[in-house]
Amino acid sequence: MVDIQTISIAIASASVVAGVVYYALQLRHQTKIRETDLAIRINPLFNLNAIEFQRAALKVASLEHMDYDDFVKRYGSLSTDTPESLAVHTMLNFSEGIGYLLKRNLVSIDLVWTYYGEGFIKVWEKIGPLMEGLTKQTVGVSLTSEPCEYLYNEVKKREQKGVDSG
User: Fold this and answer.
1) Helix axes 68-75 and 119-137, enclosed angle (nearest 10)
2) pLDDT (0 to 100) of residue 140
3) Which end of the chain is more exposed for a tag (fewer CB within 10 A), N or C?
4) pLDDT, tens digit, for every residue of 51-110?
5) Cα–Cα–Cα angle for 7, 10, 14, rounded to 5 degrees
């Protein structure tokens, strides 16, 4: 026969287990909420500079260069204050920020893919050769954009998997 003390111990134990499970689920949910909040906060389309960011993205997309030297001939040096140079730097800085967050696992590839999808692939395919040329030009100065390259590689993997961006 089961006495009252045994029943109360079983109920107390079940309550502790239920509490731990609930807490774990809440932690998981809060992580997703924080990640989504972060993605929205860093997305330039949701802040006051959306028009400038869109202009930069469109400018980079419309660039018609083959490599760094061709870019310099057509648009001038990346160290000048031309609209093309500013657009490249805007997209580079933004891509580096997203790449850094992705590499540090502060944002998931799923969220990045959903928000930006193939856009990063197109941006890096325009900007990557410029960074390579600029690095060659500035001998002795290391100009790596590792976060951008990481972002590009991760998004490219996602594209190759054929995962829908939405």
Assistant:
1) 90
2) 55
3) N
4) 888 888 889 989 988 888 899 999 988 888 899 999 998 888 888 888 888 888 888 888
5) 140
Instruction: Give 36's contacts (C-beta < 8 A, 6+ positions apart).
Output: 111
71 Cα distance to chain centroid:
26
| CA–CA separation, 69 and 74 (whole Å) | 9
Domain boundaries, the chain: 1-42, 49-161
Q: What is the mean pLDDT of the chain?
A: 82
Q: How many CA atoms lie within 13 A of 62 on its CB side?
A: 11
Q: Where does the pLDDT of residue 33 fall: very low under 50, low under 70, confident under 90, or very high at 90 and above?
A: confident
Task: Scan for tokens 């960074």, then name that residue.
Answer: 131
- Give the alpha-carbon dihedral of 41, 43, 117, 69, to 10 degrees: -140
Q: How far, in Å, are 81, 98, 116, 154 from residue 55 at the CA level?
A: 15, 19, 16, 25
Cα-atom radius of gyration of the chain, to the nearest Å? 24
User: In this structure, what token pair is assigned to residue 164?
Assistant: 């829908």
Burial of 43 (0-12, 13-18, 19+ CB in 10 A): middle
The SS3 of residue 134 is helix
